[in-house]
Amino acid sequence: MKRYFKIIAAVAALCCFMCIGVCCIKPSNARVTMSFADDTDYGIYWFGEDNDDYVRSSAQMDKKYFDSSKPTLVFFHGWEPSKENSTNGLFEDFVTHKETISKTGTTDIRDYAKEFKKQGYNVAAMSWFAYAASLVNLFNYIWVSFDGGEALSVKFAMEFAITVGEDYDKEIKFVGHSYGSQLALATTYQLIELQSKKAFDNNNIIPTRLTLADPYFGATAFIGNWDKVQDEKISFTQEPIAKRAPSVLFADILDSVVKQKDIAADMYFGMSIASSSYYKYDGSDESFEKLSRNSVIVKCKGLDNRYGNLDIHNIVRDWTLLSIADNVGLTDQYNNVAPSGAATDGQIKNMRGKCYTQVYKGLDLSKDSMVLVDRFSEKF
């Protein structure tokens, strides 16, 4: 009898222990609470009439700056070693880049904030100019950690989701240039993760389009402390970087966001040390095949031939922005729709897996066209 009661007591104790253990485990579907500080020198700024009229994200923004009945375009600038490219020190001036003016001699100077507002967009810029000169730290800032806390991509994702809100139902376009392309992709990735953790429900907060101008992948030699960073985990999601070089990580993350949300992605490669030199195009590079499956890719050969490869990084930025501002639809040698920032999301999705070269030797999109390339039988 004593043995019987001992067994019952042991079972009861085990049940109590298991119950306590279960009660102490945080549910995996716990809702994440989002927040952002509006007094930092990084964040999201929303344009009113033009590049010189802007406010920081807030719940009290006038409709002049954010109107929930309109689609939204957000620009992510990249590495910026020169303070001359920002009037306010907060974000890169959303106008024709000074290098584009000096390299091409163009007199067609554009205020993109003003032009996109006229097209009916809410227009915003991701502000991180004060930190964007430090090339060796940018990868870490975007993916791993910033200022001792979550990475910039997490901070921007939260601020954007809170500002746009649960009732928003219009399209969202993210446009990235250089390292800003990594930031645009990482912010998209974090938005999807925040939604999965029930920080918000509205699927329309996730961008429907990623248009990336000369995305900077970059050699690991230009990432500070890469020997340590390569073994870190991505901020918030805790996905291991697992020694993946930026070009490999970029392809993997793009694959993830497209699979989850069917986002349209178009990329315009320019300066080889920024983008094109990190992949092989003959079918032997698993990362490029993954990148290609999920996007349409253009090499800006016309601009390269005219201005030189090392001088087209910012020219490709303005070429891409002009294609949106002027609503330029391009065609290929078969008179079929070709990539541009003005192509619809559906058209871009239909071009996934295709590679093109840009033709015109100059910054005049009215004269431009594309050549569809079979990269398995000819050089791309």
Q: What brief labels describe this structure?
A:
380 residues; alpha/beta; 12 helices; disordered N terminus
Tell me what the structure shows:
- By secondary structure, the chain is α/β, with parallel strands linked by helices.
- Helices cover 34% and strands 14% of the residues.
- The protein contains 12 helices and 12 strands.
- The protein has helices at residues 2-24, 98-104, 112-118, 138-143, 152-164, 179-196, 226-229, 246-261, 286-293, 301-307, 313-325, 345-350, and strands at residues 43-47, 54-56, 72-76, 122-127, 172-177, 209-213, 264-269, 296-299, 330-331, 337-338, 355-358, 370-373.
- The strands form 2 sheets. A 10-stranded mixed sheet has the order 2-1-4-3-5-6-7-8-11-12, with helices on both faces. A two-stranded antiparallel sheet has the order 9-10.
- β7, α9 (286-293) and β8 (296-299) form a beta-alpha-beta unit.
- α5 (152-164) crosses α6 (179-196) and α8 (246-261) packs parallel to α9.
- It is globular.
Which structural class is indicated by helix and strand composition?
Answer: alpha/beta
Number of strands: 12
- Structural shape: globular
Radius of gyration: 23 Å
Give the mean pLDDT.
Answer: 92
**Order of strands, widest sheet:** 2-1-4-3-5-6-7-8-11-12
How many helices?
12
Q: What is the secondary structure topology, with strand pairs?
A:
Blueprint: H1 2-24, E1 43-47, E2 54-56, E3 72-76, H2 98-104, H3 112-118, E4 122-127, H4 138-143, H5 152-164, E5 172-177, H6 179-196, E6 209-213, H7 226-229, H8 246-261, E7 264-269, H9 286-293, E8 296-299, H10 301-307, H11 313-325, E9 330-331, E10 337-338, H12 345-350, E11 355-358, E12 370-373
Parallel strand pairs: 3-4, 3-5, 5-6, 6-7, 7-8, 8-11
Antiparallel strand pairs: 1-2, 1-4, 9-10, 11-12
